[in-house]
Structure formats: structure tokens, C-alpha cells
Amino acid sequence: MKRYQELPIGGVIPGGATPHLVQTGGWRSGRKPSFNEKLCVNCLLCWAHCPEATIVVERLQMRGFSYDHCKGCGICSQVCPTGAITMIEEAAITPALATKAGEEVCV
Amino acid sequence: MRVATERLSLLTGAEAAAHAMRQIDPDVVPVYPITPQTPIIETFAQFVADGLCHTEIINVESEHSAMSAAVGASCAGARVITATSSQGLALMLEIVYIASSMRCPIVIAVGSRALSGPINIHCDHSDSMMARDAGCVQLFAENAQEAYDLMLIAQRLAEDHRVLVPVMVMQDGFTITHSAEPVALLPDEVVKEFVGEYEPLYPLLDVDHPTTQGPFALPDYYFELKRQQVDALDAARTVWLELQEEFAALSGRRYHGFFEAYKLSDAEYVLVILSSTAGTAKVTIDRLRRKGVKVGLLRPWVFRPFPAHEIAQALAGKRAVAVLDRAISLGSWGPLYLEISAALGRYLPTRPTLYNYIYGLGGRDTPPELLASVVTDMQNEVDPTVLRYLGLRE
After folding, report:
1. CA distance B182 to B174
2. What ipTM describes this predicted complex?
3. A30 and chain B in contact, CB less than 8 A
4. CA-based nearest residue in chain A for residue B224
5. Domains of chain B (ranges plus CATH)?
6. Is A21 an 8 Å CB contact of chain B?
7. Confidence grade of residue A92 (pLDDT, cut at 50, 70, 90)
8. Which domains does chain A have, with CATH numbers?
9. Among A9, A15, A17, whose Cβ lies nearest the Cβ of B103?
10. Do B213 and A12 touch (CB under 8 A)?
11. What is the pTM (predicted TM-score) of this model?
């Protein structure tokens, strides 16, 4: 941990967005998004609106969610124009697949 | 640098502050009107409308929004000024804390006015004293000339990379904001050179160097970030002293040290007072001096950072000191008294008898006779453990 003299002033974090560093999925409760790939038109509105690093995109293709970061807010399902994203019960089982980067993605 | 040629203009304190803003030509000024500050932004808005400066004025729906817009613009990299009074400052205050913690060098012109309630539009210092812990530099002007000068110095002070916190410049509501007196304005180009260009440290609009600003800071970082603000206010002391040298060379007007010392060096009795009532105090002191009473004045320009050591040194060896507060910390004593009491206790082995008087709340007039009665009290060695009220019906 850095001493106060070593930190950039004002809490500034150089380098831009940081949500991928924080696993906000740990306190998700109640519901989570699920993805129907057949309805997705890949507009990426979900990616643009998600406040965390939850929407996994590979080569401009929506692939699914990283539940490690998902707080369950449901914004993605609200902005999805085709109904490809719906909120489901937390306990529901979702299939997992591995991306090329090796990260587990749930759909 | 040369001393600028003086050009006297008949201006109210509000107009003087607006002229300072016109000459500084800030990028963004988010504003919401409130008496007695309104003539500052009204005059400034006319300057913008007349094309005399190039500021984007943002007319917002409240002071909370004004300070929020100021923080946003400042983080983007803009030079930002705003102005307020009383309830306006109270509504701003939540975001003033954010501004100082995000190290936004916003200059805030304040027309000092009593806080409600009961509702009142006249001067006291309850508004600025409410904001004393917000992490801003706080400067108090005695008259319109100082209101102008301190706005110019405030801009440099705020934007110095060793400081980078908001600076509040107080002038007494109505007494100064609405009273016209001769003011020496510096030539526009001299001000332009003095304030220079603002060089933001982490401008959000610098997309080649992206930053996250205003992040959540939990127990692992919050303490360190608050400690940085302590350093910023400490650095403001150094920068203030440097700037007053530079400003004196430009203007011929010197703000020597952190406070005005009027007939203080040989004084046995001292009045300590902020802002415009110091003018009345000087008249009173002149009258009493003619009668052989050795009385002087100490008037801080800088309340935050509080110049505790310097004030303690200046008051060492005095017989008695009366601190006059135009605000009260209800349940305790006056805020200026509390600072000075702590300073004397910290730095002096033997301290002068210290009195506290509350005066002028809600714009109550304080004529010379009342200030003279304070000196009489000190001569009579009245009980210093009693909080006293000046001009109160009791």
C-alpha cells in the first residue's frame, strides 16, 4: 500500500476505467442477466450502458456476462432492443463457456 | 515588474469582484443568484454579454448544481469561478467538500450573509464559518479594493500546483457588496499576465491520458487522501507569501504576512476582527490613541489555512486581547476566538487575557462606541471566562 505522499492527488487514478479490477459481483443478489444469442443483433448497447466490466465482448461480438463483476442492476436488459437479455433468478443454472482469453463467460 | 499606473473607479465591492472576474476571463462560471451576492454575477454577466470576456456562463437551477457544474468543468480542465452567499453556500457545501477533495481550484466569491433562521439577508460570517472545515482557502476582504485584489490573488493561489484547492473570497454583504468606494483596477493586460494560463494537472478532456476521477475510497485510501489535503492547505501558506510579493510589485499594494497589524507593535490592548468592521475598529483605535490608550488591531486576511503561529507571535506580551466574532458556534464560543485561544495555548508559555465578543449577527450595526466599550472592558479586567455579546439587548 502506498503512503499518502506517493499517491496522485485528489484520488485520481491514471489510466482510465478500472471496473475490471473490482469484483463487484460478490454482492449481487436476487437476479442476474441471461443471454439469448439468437436474438442478439450485436448493437453493444448493453456494453455501453453497463456500469461495471460485466459485458464480455470479443472482436466486437457480444459473448455473454462476467458474473464476477455483475451487480444485477438490470440496465443491460432494459436497454437491449431485441429482448436478448432477460433477468433471471440468481439460483438458475446458466451454461458456462470459455473465451479465447480464458475467462469464463456465462450466457 | 513595474508598478501599474493607478486608475481609480467608483465601484461597489460586488462590481470590483466582477471586474476581477472580467480580467481573469475564466472559461466557465456556473451561477445561481442570491442576495447579496447577485450583483457580482449580474455585473459579470453584463461584461460577458458585452463581449468583454469569453466565459461560458451556465445558468443552473440551484447552488448545488452551480458547484456540481463547477467541479465538472474544473475536472475537464477549465478555469472556473462562481459566487454565492448564505443559504446558497449552505446548499453548495456538500459539493464544496467534493471540489476540495478532487483538488479543483475553483474560486468562490462570497457576499457574507447570515444563515437562516430566522431568515435574514444581512451580513454576518455564519456562512463562511460553516464552510471552514471544507478544505478551502478562506480569505476575508475589508473593503472593495481588497475584494478585487484578493480575487486576483485567489486565482493564482488556487491554481498553484502545490495547492489546487478551492479559494473562497469573502466580502461583507451589503456593507461592501453594495457600497461604492474608489477602487484602483490594474490594467487588463497586467492582470492577464499575472494570472497566466491555468495548467490543469489531470484534465479529463486529455483523452490521450485517461484518468478515473472521484473514485470510491474505502478505509484503505480515504485517510491518505485527506492527509494530502492537509499538505495542500499548508502549501497555501507558502504560496500566499510568494504571491503577495509578486502582487505588491505589480500593484503597490502589499498584503504583508497573513494579517493586517494596525498600531499593533506597541499596543497593550488588541482587537482581533475580520472584514469590514475592522474599518470601524481603526477609527475607534485612532480616537482612543488620542486619549493615550495603547490599543491596536490584528485583522487576518487568511482564516484558512489559519496562521496560528504568526498570530501567537504577534500577540505575545500583550496585556489583553479581545477577539470579535461575527458568527457563533452554538453550544461553544466564536470560531475565530477558538482558533486564537488554541494558537496562544500552543505557542505561548504565558498568554494575554483573552476575551470573546459576539457582534453584528444578522447585520446588527457595530458603531465605534461599542468597540470602545470592549477596550474599556479590557482595561477594567472584566471576567474573561464569560462569553460577551456586543450590541445585544439583554
Report:
1. 16
2. 0.88
3. no
4. A4
5. 8-198+213-251 (3.40.50.970), 259-390 (3.40.50.920)
6. no
7. confident
8. 22-106 (3.30.70.20)
9. A9
10. yes
11. 0.92
